[in-house]
């Protein structure tokens, strides 16, 4: 099956410089969601019909498997599909989707496709509580679909119909081509309506069938930021429900945001207001406390992420304690039972098993062995203003508080650095190294007093 995605509408009501179909939902452009649904059901060609802002839209999806068709001017949905026809092969069927209808589910499309078979015209319809604005499905006394009438062209009796056209349909390509050649724009909007193919199919004796989605929200479109926000909440709630069904504990399923994919093991617990971006994996018994942001991280079994931690592009081992207020920037790998405490920033570093940096530190471009204690206020001076250098700290090192390690520098196994040290050359293994002005006491010193 082939797919056509209509995405030429301007989206003026978004009041944004960003083309409508590039507006993000769950961190991904609307069109990205539709393409994912399309790819799930169709291995064959996908053609996107674009108009306004088309170049930006194309650049956002450099996939060579997508064919792009330009529609200018925009003369209606039927005219839009017609622009895609040169990109479609004559045989088989085509699924029509919309770039601004992002939540359509694969299961629904599979059902619609099955209903269409190779010869039928299959429409996705919804029994809407409020059908205002939508095209109505008009059936005969036997319940057979006759045609679709748009809201603006409908008579009072037709307006009472609650079964609406979602716009999503599957049609045999060769038939579709013929029907599109025959549609006219003699209607209240002066547009070439895709929906007019239904009446033509009936006239040609082609069977028209309908199926319904599992959820009405799958077929909702986005025309404004209000609708975008509504769909975001619907989608997030659906993702949260899936996690709950998988056995994840969510303290409040209304207060989690997933912008990418979140893979969870058994007995994972997630507190409120956490954001997951990119690809995140949480192992068994991981706990993520409130207000954490995790982007592209893998977290090992039993690790606890304490509140307000911000973790990016890193790997965390088993049984670690992270935060509160920890920051891991890209390129970190923590072993097992590593502790990173409050206001500890780590970047592009490896920290081996049982090591701890509990308070107020910056660890950048460092290789830290196991059972190392990084004292409060320790800083790796990794950058000289032009180049970056590594700090190596071997196993069993104890680093006193308020130490600066001026890289490149190495601290040998079992070494101790005295508090306040500014380390500018390597510290030998097993020894105490410190750089510190000797402490003096001036016993007859007097505090100054204010002159009269
Ligand atoms: C259309 C259907 C209506 C259905 C409704 C569902 C027609 C004639 N009517 O109405 O039966 O109930 O969708 O939302 O099809 N587009 C283009 N090029 C165009 C016109 C539209 O690409 O020239 C795209 C738009 O970007 C949009 C979609 O097609 O994504 C629907 O267009 P819109 O004008 O919103 O159609 P409706 O009037 O809502
Ligand atoms: Ca619409």
Structure notes:
This protein has a 21-stranded parallel sheet that branches. It contains 8 helices and 35 strands. It has 2 domains: 2-219, Spore Coat Polysaccharide Biosynthesis Protein SpsA, Chain A (Alpha-Beta Complex); 241-433, Hexapeptide repeat proteins (UDP N-Acetylglucosamine Acyltransferase, domain 1, 3 Solenoid), CATH 2.160.10. The model has no long low-confidence stretch (mean pLDDT 97). By secondary structure, it is an alpha/beta fold. It starts with a strand and ends in a 19-residue tail after the last strand. The chain is elongated and about 110 Å long. Residues 6-9, 49, 71, 74-77, 79-80, 98-100, 134-135, 148, 150, 164-167, 193-195, 221 line the site of uridine-diphosphate-N-acetylglucosamine.
